[in-house]
Design brief:
Two copies of one chain form a homodimer. The first copy, chain A, is of the alpha/beta class. Chain A has 22 helices and 19 strands.
Chain lengths: ~625, ~625
């Protein structure tokens, strides 16, 4: 330890005590929260903010700034106290914790300028931190990323996905800190204070590990310095702490998780306990002024122009997943912000096309979807435009990450291939039939679903330029190109593919069912029944006016047909858009657990082929109930 | 090795070769599948089935039988070949692999009598195997559970959740086998043949580890015996293998994942390569006859009678989550098949009430939701009735497991607490607003949503007696008891709470919004507007006739109100049930990412409080558009 640092110690200890006092006061004012969880980590955070991290409190998003991710999001009051202590905002604000009009929420969200991704679902912050660390490489910055985890949190599998990816990628610009306070929510943690249990796991996963007393300011500073000096692998600092540290009668005691100190005597006693720990400081020490400056501001990345149109031929057969891969590769060449992430299915999703042209921005996660989406969140929060892709069904492995990506409103572009029963023989475990429901449920995820290569290409370009999370659903089978290369698409748009002045019914399809609808159109036309056919390539948001107009021109009857379960997908989306205008919607969808078989057999067996559309149209035209839809 | 076993070696080697030939033939006949993945594990499986496991090929579900879970589900043809080799079904069936009317699907599902849970989403089988091992303890059987994993699969975080839970629970009746063939789908795996990478991870997680050559039959048998002798901890056998083993020009080669041998010369060459490996056997060896018999059939567990009604008082305030916990505890006392699983939130979900009365059937997973649901699947498959519970939002961590639970149609009863914005100050990361969409999407999950303590109690009892997966959604706030203790509820039912002959609108609510609807009723009644109010406690399936009848008696106008996002929840469920009968449905739901605040403030801010229902009813009654629903 340098003499400079040594002279800081009393001030750092006092800062930690102030963070505890602020966490105490703010949670008591709010009447809820997790003060004792803040107390255990206060020394670690004080040391990090005032003697280790390089940042500018007035510009938390400085692109050369070290990052801090609070993976144990329930310690939010500590995070807020630390930023107030840096001078980023007035300390009085802390007392508005958890109020409806304060951005100091119960768990951190990016409504706050110093929060990159929302945390509070445990085991996610460490994944986002990997994305942040990868981004430093992308922009050739030496900023470092720090991530504070809880010990209870370490039980989440996603933490070990993160552990293996960070070690594989040799992320020595990443430093994890585990606050081992030994107490979970409902009981002592699995390993309590057996520090070796933690150390041997992280070491086995390839990390440099340092075990410290998390209340020994000297040791903490040394650990940060050692982590900074460690090259070729990430470091995990395992800090033995006491939950409730600083308030004598609470330290290390069960029954205090998520419990605040009651205003009045209880709060007063705790405050007094903490205040008496404030010690005399060296004169001239000013922690705020001593905060290390951010690293150099990386050169601005040139903005990409719009992606040039593709060069497909009408009628040629190409799977949308393949067109996705080709578009992604061209996008990668055009825009250095674009990165791609895989979970060992790049040759099925065709993201390997991107890897070929931009291997340095292609991140392999192996079969670990949670860290793939989590690190994409971190990358997006630092300015990259990440496209993580896998089989659509396996995106559900990261459903909770997708939920948090929506809360974070990060610029992640997820792509799921092999949607629906049309994948065929691999069977139900490989079929995504609930992915539209999963992504549509989030109010801010744009859900795009191309049916042909041109729309796939254009929707990839659109996803990249759209602000916020996007989900692109692609299919396994080859489908004919139906759109000219210069066709334009919009988030919230649709295409009317067939129309006449005598349409009996509007059929709304997307993806592979567009071709079933076109086939049904041709069959029905033979005996004089005309239908309007819409390609609903934007499933969320939907073009409500466009749907209403098309439905009204087709007798107010709509049939939706989708390679997806009946609940939460296209039928529901269309229904909500039009129904209270008196339009009737009849949903054709997969209504039972499917099985293996040939794609065309399965479309037929599970009720979503042209034959079923024809039957439904005839039933509607005859004023009968639609059997297929029940 | 005993002399008996040694004499079996040539026959076991031949069996392994036959399994390879059958896997080759069946995948070539199907035209798709993963033969080379079967080849790498064939020796491991042959040894397991014909020299280690105790089971009855004619009664695969014998309750004293050892279990085999194929976690690497894409090796399904090998599993099928092994069971055909035992005599469970005719070998000719294998050539129907992946055909639409064969149960020999691309990945295993419990349509087959020897499959406990569907696999094919990697990293799940090992979690189910833990449930199977826990069940052996529950029924006091010494049956053992074996689980075959892939090396690529080991990247899934769920595998490490399983690792820590199995070690913590000292499951020495569990034996994992990792087929380390070094090749993933798209490239070599992260650790390839570096066996120490695997061994040190499993050892760090507390398992006994054995590294073997996975093509050395002697060594494999020794490893199984060593695992059987190991007490106090589970064993992981790490088997170094070659993908494609047995077909000389494919062994260990990239580019053969998920690729079949083309009929004709390619298939013929491969078959010949394998056939020449068949060796002379000792006379008198009959592998089928030598299969070890299952352990004793455990005593039948007495079936429980119906759970006695609770004893709540109308008007008393109790949270549904608390009533859930109380019901679960009473159920646990009444029925020894009932078990409960937690992820360190037992004091919030109130599953700790169960732990108090039946600690030996309460399984703590700490903060690891995937293994919680996965092991519940394994427990259910072996006859237990598991109730895993956590915050509803964190069930989304296990969304892919829930998807596979639906495909498996297992008897798992999931409970999610803290639904919706009504949780208040903790903020969006802790609010489940997409859980109904997640569970409703699956065609066979019953979704139940109590509003008061009595309905919570009765729905827990109903869930236990219902066959198949169930999701119960509970809420954080205390709500008044509105039902008498002897009220009856059904899966697919609803309750009409307010009705008259002059109802202007039907309001459909559930959970906390029932009380908003009742409040709206009271407010509207003052100025003479009457509404019908329905408690839709069964969200899936819904009582279509009941809804239609109520809607028709209320002018054909329905307003749904839910503490959930607009897509995929109650509005969509009601809409699909009634709309094509010309009923108009207006959805009131949460339509943006919420934030921290007091529960009542949030209900109001996010548009689902009584005030908004009143406004919507007035708009509908006046023939105007419902502003709140847009």
């Amino acid at each position: 330890m340098t003499a400079d640092l040594a002279s800081l110690l009393p001030a750092l200890r006092n800062a930690a005590t102030r963070l505890r006092i602020d966490s105490l006061e703010s949670t008591s004012a709010a009447g809820s929260g997790h003060p004792t969880t803040c107390f255990s980590a206060a020394d670690l955070v004080a040391a990090l903010f005032f003697a280790e991290m390089r940042f500018d409190p007035k510009e938390p998003q400085h692109p050369g700034s070290d990052r801090f991710v609070l993976s144990k999001g329930h310690a939010a009051p500590l995070l807020y106290a630390a930023w107030a202590e840096t001078g980023a905002f007035p300390r009085e604000e802390l007392l508005k914790l958890r109020e409806i009009d304060s951005d100091l929420e119960g768990h951190p969200t990016p409504r706050l300028p110093f929060v990159d991704v929302a945390t509070g679902s445990l085991g996610q912050g460490i994944c986002a931190a990997i994305g942040s660390a990868l981004n430093a490489r992308r922009i050739r910055s030496d900023y470092r990323t720090y991530c504070l985890l809880g010990d209870g949190e370490s039980a989440e599998g996603s933490v070990w996905e993160a552990a293996q990816v960070a070690a594989m990628d040799k992320l020595d610009n990443l430093c994890g800190i585990t606050d081992v306070n030994a107490l979970g929510q409902s009981r002592p943690t699995m390993w309590q204070h057996d520090m070796d249990q933690f150390a041997r796991r992280w070491a086995a996963f390839g990390w440099h590990t340092i075990v410290v007393d998390g209340h020994d300011m000297d040791a903490i500073l040394d650990a940060y310095a050692e982590a900074r000096r460690t090259s070729g692998r990430p470091t995990m600092i395992l800090a033995r702490t006491l939950k409730g540290k600083g308030v004598s009668w609470v330290e290390g005691k069960e029954g205090w998780h998520g419990k605040v100190f009651k205003k009045g005597e209880e709060l007063d006693r705790a405050r007094a306990d903490l205040q008496k720990q404030l010690v005399p400081e060296a004169s001239g020490v000013n922690l705020q002024a001593g905060i290390k400056k951010p690293s150099a501001r990386p050169a601005d990345v040139p903005a990409s122009g719009p992606l040039a149109p593709p060069s497909y031929k009408i009628g040629e057969h190409i799977a949308t997943r393949e067109a996705y891969g080709d578009a992604l590769a061209r996008l990668g060449q055009a825009d250095p912000r674009v990165v791609a992430l895989d979970a060992d299915v790049k040759n099925s999703t065709f993201s390997d096309r991107f890897e070929k042209v931009a291997p340095e921005r292609f991140y392999q996660n192996f079969i670990a979807e949670q860290v793939m989406i989590g690190s994409a969140m971190g990358l997006a929060a630092r300015g990259a435009i990440p496209f993580p892709s896998t089989f659509a069904c396996f995106l559900s492995r990261a459903a909770d990450f997708i939920r948090m990506a929506a809360i974070s409103n990060v610029n992640v572009k997820m792509a799921g291939s092999h949607a629906g029963v049309s994948i065929g023989e691999d069977g139900p475990s490989q079929m995504a039939l609930e992915d539209l429901a999963m992504c549509r449920a989030q109010p801010n995820i744009a859900v795009l679903y191309p049916c042909d290569a041109v729309s796939a290409d254009r929707l990839v370009a659109l996803a990249a330029s759209h602000r916020g999370p996007v989900y692109i659903r692609t299919s396994r089978p080859k489908t004919p190109v139906i759109y000219p290369n210069d066709e334009t698409f919009t988030v919230g748009g649709l295409k009317v593919l067939r129309e006449s002045s005598q349409d009996a019914v509007l059929v709304v399809a997307a993806g592979v069912t567009v071709f079933e609808a076109l086939d049904a159109y041709a069959q029905l036309k033979v005996d004089g029944t005309l239908i309007r056919v819409v390609d609903l390539y934007s499933v969320s948001p939907v073009d409500r006016e466009g749907l209403l107009s098309a439905a009204r021109s087709a007798g107010g009857h709509v049939i939706t047909v989708e390679d997806h379960y009946a609940a939460g997908g296209i039928g529901d989306a269309v229904s909500e858009a039009v129904e209270h205008e008196g339009v009737r919607v009849h949903r054709i969808a997969v209504r039972e657990i499917p099985r293996s078989g040939k794609p065309e057999e399965l479309l037929d067996r599970f009720g979503i082929s042209a034959k079923h559309i024809v039957a439904a149209v005839r039933a509607v035209a005859a004023g009968k109930p639609v059997g297929a839809a029940r």
